[in-house]
Each structure stands twice: as structure tokens, then as C-alpha cells.
Write a structure and sequence with these properties.
Elements: E1 2-6, E2 14-18, E3 28-37, H1 40-46, E4 59-60, E5 64-72, E6 84-87, E7 90-91, H2 97-100, E8 111-112, E9 124-128, E10 132-134, H3 141-160, E11 168-172, H4 176-187, E12 191-196, H5 204-210, E13 214-217, H6 224-227, E14 232-237, H7 242-246, E15 252-260, H8 272-277, E16 281-284, H9 290-301, H10 307-310, E17 312-315, H11 319-327, E18 334-337
Parallel strand pairs: 11-12, 11-14, 12-13, 14-15, 15-16, 17-18
Antiparallel strand pairs: 1-2, 1-4, 3-5, 3-9, 3-18, 5-6, 6-10, 7-8
């Protein structure tokens, strides 16, 4: 089968290889991949960023995908070949306190599809049956490939940041997670502004404007706090830029909340005393659990997300071109179709 492999720690060392199709072990399901997205974390791993140095190479990437069931391993019940599905990206122990509370995404023993094990940027992938879930509401496979990313955004916006009607919201970062957060925050009644850097102006900030959002270009010379008429209720940091998180407190109301959905390649140097004195809350968000995936499919069913305006499709044979478009930020979201 074809598979997109991250071959070494050298930045951009990607290759489309011929790999043996996996055979499902007991309790596993082999999935025929129908659509698979390139996540910002895939980009970070491919660029060799230090916050993804845990990924052992070579590794077949891919954790945002939809599929049809191709084969059932021994002991698998309740599924049949041809069922349309998606899959939970984070595999957990199911016995620790966090897992028992439903927070499987912060299991200390977690393993991530496409990072700790072979992923879905391939014709086929095998996944344990407990992480496979039905693709509901007659969603198509392109929509299914957005479920994982949308689940992450939904968890951040609705659970962690608890955005309510009338909240003034800044979404820092205009990649796909930032845009999804902005769309969900607006649907929740927030007054949303999306920010980016100068190099985002032509493509990603323009996409935000096309979606109806106000935008602001932020730089060291023109910080966000100096551009706002007043501090905001909620600040969602989705850019992964340490300087954006470091400056977030200055743009947030006293008693407001900073949600963090990005990870960072370097430590963030911020003035913790200001946050304490202003009693600003900080709420990080790591990935998503089962109920967030269910919520994401409902958002798609309800038309909250204009999928066609957000994605660009590539053939799996053009995987390297899809990654290059993701590296240079010339596409909001690349989705590959095997």
C-alpha cells in the first residue's frame, strides 16, 4: 500500500513509500482510509520542532481521518465491512483516574495514532475497536476527516472557555484550529476577532475575513493590546507563537480567561504576577475525548462549519505537495484522498 512516511529527524524528510498493508490483530479493525487531514501537529513533527521530538522515526503520520471498515480482527463484534467510521486519535489506558472520569485525552499512558504508532496517511490503517466510532448523520468522508480537529476546537471553546452570548473573544492564530475555534465561538454568541502575523495576511487572515470575521495583524511594533478598544472576555491562543501567549494577559479583562489550545516549540516567558493580580484564569486544552467527537459531528450536521470554504483536497499521491502547501501556509486545511 501507499503510505506517507516521516523518515528521520531532518526537517521535511517525508516520502511516499510502498508499505505492506497491515493485518488486524485480535480486537483490531482494518480501515480503508477515505480522507485524511494534515494537522498542525503533523506539520510541526515534519519540521522537526522540539515539542514533537517524542515521535520516533520512521513513522507513518496521520490521525485526522475518515474510513470504511475493510476487515475485522478476531473477537471484533458489532461492526461490519463497509461501515463508514472515524477514529479517536488518542489511545489511553482506560483504568486511571482521568480515563475513568472520561478525560482519556490526558491519560498519562496515552499513545497517539500517527505519532506513537502507524497512522492513517496511507491506504489502510489498523485501529483497536474501542477507538473506532460511527460516522454519524450521513456526513461525507471529507467532513469526517475534519471531525478530530473540530472536536479539539469544540472542547476548547465550549468546555474550557465556556463562551457565552455577548462575550468579546480574540482567537489568536488563523490556522485551521483557530478558524474552527472562531466559528464555534461565533455560533455560541461571541463577538469574535481573529489575529495573525503579517505573513498570514494574504491567505489565512483573508480566509477569516471571507468567513465574516474582523481581523487584526499583530507584531512586536503593533501589539494587540494597543489595537483593541477594550480588553476582551476570552482569549484563545491557537497560534503556537510563544510571544502571542506571553502578551495575552494585556488584552484580557481582569477576571477574564485565556484558553490555550496550541503547543509551543520554546518556553513562554510571561509576567505571571500580572495574571495573579488581575485574577485571570488560564485553561489549557489538550486534544479531545469521545464526547467531543460526538459534539463535532453534531456541529457538522447543523451546518456550523462551512467545510468547502476551509479545505483543499489533494490526492494521496500528491502528499508531498499537500505538506508543502501546509508548510508555507498557502492552504487553510489540506485533506488527502487516497
Amino acid at each position: 500500500m501507499r503510505a506517507l512516511c516521516l523518515q528521520s529527524n531532518t526537517p521535511k524528510d517525508l516520502a511516499l513509500i510502498d508499505a505492506p498493508a497491515p493485518e488486524p490483530k485480535p480486537n483490531e479493525i482494518r480501515l480503508k482510509v477515505e480522507a485524511v487531514g494534515i494537522c498542525g501537529s503533523d506539520v510541526s513533527a515534519a519540521l522537526g520542532k522540539p515539542n514533537f521530538d517524542f515521535v520516533k522515526r520512521p513513522r507513518i503520520l496521520g490521525h485526522e481521518f475518515s474510513a470504511t471498515i475493510d476487515a475485522l480482527g478476531e473477537n471484533v463484534t458489532g461492526w461490519k465491512v463497509g461501515d463508514p467510521v472515524c477514529a479517536i486519535a488518542i489511545h489511553s489506558c482506560h483504568t486511571c483516574d482521568n480515563c475513568r472520569a472520561g478525560n482519556t485525552q490526558i491519560c498519562e499512558e496515552r499513545q497517539i495514532l500517527g505519532f506513537h504508532m502507524s497512522g492513517a496517511m496511507a491506504d489502510f490503517v489498523c485501529v483497536h475497536e474501542r477507538y473506532v466510532m460511527p460516522l454519524r448523520y450521513n456526513l461525507n468522508f471529507i467532513e469526517g476527516a475534519l471531525v478530530e480537529a473540530l472536536a479539539v476546537a469544540s472542547r476548547c471553546v465550549l468546555k474550557m472557555c465556556e463562551i457565552k452570548p455577548g462575550h468579546d473573544v480574540i482567537v489568536s492564530g488563523c490556522g485551521i484550529i483557530g478558524l474552527l475555534c472562531a466559528l464555534l465561538a461565533r455560533a455560541a454568541g461571541g463577538n469574535v476577532t481573529v489575529t495573525g502575523a503579517e505573513w498570514d495576511e494574504e491567505v489565512r487572515l483573508q480566509k477569516a475575513r471571507d468567513l465574516g470575521f474582523q481581523t487584526r495583524v499583530v507584531s512586536d511594533e503593533n501589539p494587540l493590546s494597543a489595537q483593541l478598544p477594550a480588553p476582551v472576555d476570552r482569549f484563545i491562543e491557537a497560534s503556537g507563537a510563544p510571544q502571542a501567549l506571553a502578551a495575552a494577559s494585556d488584552s484580557v479583562k481582569w477576571g477574564g480567561l485565556i484558553g490555550i489550545i496550541a503547543t509551543y516549540g520554546f518556553n513562554v516567558d510571561w509576567t505571571a504576577t500580572n495574571i495573579v493580580r488581575r485574577e485571570q484564569k488560564i485553561h489549557p486544552c489538550m486534544a479531545a475525548a469521545w464526547d467531543d467527537f460526538e459534539a463535532a459531528m453534531k456541529h457538522l450536521r447543523d451546518g456550523v462549519i462551512p467545510v468547502d470554504d476551509l479545505i483543499e483536497t489533494f490526492a494521496l499521491d500528491d502528499a508531498i505537495a499537500a505538506f508543502e502547501a501546509s508548510f508555507d501556509k498557502s492552504t487553510p486545511k489540506a485533506i488527502m484522498i487516497p
